[in-house]
Specification:
120 residues; 2 helices; 5-stranded antiparallel beta sheet; alpha+beta
């Protein structure tokens, strides 16, 4: 049987080698995990996303300083959608800043963990 070298064949061989199976359930589970992880990627804000007043994690290289080495802040667009607000945390003086420095990239906050029964 000839070895095919399409992208799909390489992906399936990788799954088989890594997990020892071509099981549809395993492949579906891994594809679902991949899709969920891609949903958490950083992306450019658009007119439609994030929704107005929805807090997200935002990144802007100009937000990097001694107190924030990552340049990541909580931010959101005001209710009218025409201005961004971002959280600034300084010693004893935390506030939301408005202005022209909107996030270059954003990502949604992750879903909180689901509560579990005590016996689990």
């Amino acid at each position: 049987m000839p070895i095919l070298d399409t992208k799909e064949d390489r992906r399936l061989r990788h799954l088989r080698d890594e997990h020892g199976t071509y099981s549809a359930a395993v492949i579906y589970s891994l594809e679902t995990q991949l899709a969920e992880s891609k949903a958490d990627e950083w992306k450019k804000p658009t007119d439609d996303w994030p929704a107005h007043s929805e807090p997200v994690m935002g990144w802007n290289p100009y937000w990097q300083d001694a107190g924030n080495e990552t340049g990541i802040r909580e931010c959101f667009r005001n209710a009218g959608g025409d201005e961004w607000l971002s959280a600034v945390f300084q010693e004893g003086d935390d506030y939301y800043q408005t202005g022209d420095d909107r996030p270059w990239l954003c990502r949604a906050y992750p879903e909180p963990p689901k509560e579990q029964d005590d016996d689990q």
